[in-house]
Amino acid sequence: MFEPGNIGSDGTQRITIAFVENRLVLGGGSEQVVYDVIRGLDPSRFRPILICLHEMGEWGEALSKRGIKVYERVAGHSLDPRNILRLSRILKQERADFLYVTDGFHNMIAGRLAAAIARTPQSVLIFHSYDTVMRKALTRSRRAVLDLSDRLFHPLFHRIIALSESHRTYLNRVKRIPAEKISIVYNGIDCDRYESDADASLVRQKYDLPIDGTVIGMIAGLRRWKAHDMLLRAAVPVLEESPDTVFVLAGDGPERERLEQLAKDLGVDTNVRFLGRVEDVPELLAALDASVLSSMHEAFPLSLLESMAASIPLVATDVGSVSEIVEDGVNGFLVPSGAEAAFADAILRLVRDPELARRLGANGRKKLEAQFTLRRMVSSCEALFSEWWEDLQPITGPQTVEGGRARVQMPQSRSHNTA
User: What are the distances in angstroms from CA 277 to CA 26, 130, 266, 361?
Assistant: First the structure.
């Protein structure tokens, strides 16, 4: 007999999805996607729960306040096998229909093994990265461990979610995951949140930016693969032609000290602002004339979508799935990874031609509204989970709750194309 919490107001069973994460903290792209999906699922058809191996984090707390059941500190030491047993007990207690994990090493392994013990019907793995470049930087032994875990655990997942067509191709060809197991859910954001009414001049004053100069921003954690050093080197020729331009680096991380020193060595430090982590991104976007991303690898960066929502033109390296976000010459410019001169030239094209920048920014907003909304992302997830759940049901057909007995009925799916 199903638990009352699994039954919707119309008497149908809700689909229970257990989201397993290390923690759900502000500032991470994959964490934001998980948060947005959980809070966006139709509560009459879906029952999400969040299981954090460590502390729940700010977004976990926000979900808890919204009435979502959240478990935290489920794991002790990362290598403690009891973590798997603790997690399996929760999955069994909650009668989860699906396990949903992102491609983090520990939550992927612990989650899948726990689901096997708990006999959770379906396990879903969502990839949020292209890790080819990252793995090249690892030690040989660490890389060998990750490669082994891929071969052992990826085949154990029933379903795989990619973030784009190119991402699916990567997972199929590089990770050797069968194409028929891979579905696509494009990231999406809440467009309305980025229609800020902030006064651009006041925001510029707040961050010590020139009122009339050109402001170029990059919103990304200060990590090596984001390649901020390429942006700083590209700033040199930009400033030679446009000395009143200022570069804003919003984000924090282990590279900050090195990058601050590099800015001094290049002689651009007076035109660069290191803001650290910015809580109000929509407000900051109001101060920008262009948004850039210089990464060596990306999956489907939310920072570009955020800039598109604010009608800001883009300059980005052509890595990962970025070319599915940035159409060269339509809503921004694409340049090869590591091409500092081309990166500088693309920025200067926007600096020289404000009307071009305005047009590209407007095109970006239209593209976002058509393809990358939050509602579209959540609807895609709902459609997939409903389809997969239906595949699990016995051939005897749909059932309902009648006479005090719980029987299964397939929740009706919303349109897959809802934007």
Answer: 10, 24, 24, 24
What does 336-383 look like in DSSP terms, one character per residue?
Answer: -TT-HHHHHHHHHHHHH-HHHHHHHHHHHHHHHHHH-BHHHHHHHHHH
* Residue 149: per-residue pLDDT: 77
DSSP 8-state code for residue 403: T
Three-state DSSP class for residue 99: strand
Nearest to 27 by CA among 200, 278, 256: 278
What letter does residue 180 receive in the DSSP assignment?
G
Give the pLDDT confidence of 250-295 residue by residue, as tens digits. Answer: 999 999 999 999 999 999 999 999 999 998 999 999 999 999 999 9
Across 320-347, average pLDDT: 97
Name the strands in the sheet holding 332-335, side by side, starting at the edge strand that comes first in the sequence. Answer: 272-276, 246-250, 215-219, 290-293, 314-317, 332-335
Q: Where are the beta strands (DSSP E) in 170-320?
A: 182-184, 215-219, 246-250, 272-276, 290-293, 314-317
The residues, ordered by sequence, that sit 6+ positions from 177 with a Cβ below 8 Å of its Cβ are 154, 160, 171
Q: Number of helices (H) and strands (E), helices first, in the chain?
A: 15, 13
Task: Report the distance separating Cα 331 and Cα 95, nearest Å.
Answer: 46
Provide the strand spans (E) within 178-260.
Answer: 182-184, 215-219, 246-250
Distance of CA 408 to the CA centre of its chain: 33
Q: Which residue has the tokens 């006999």?
A: 119
Looking at the chain, how many residues does it have?
A: 419
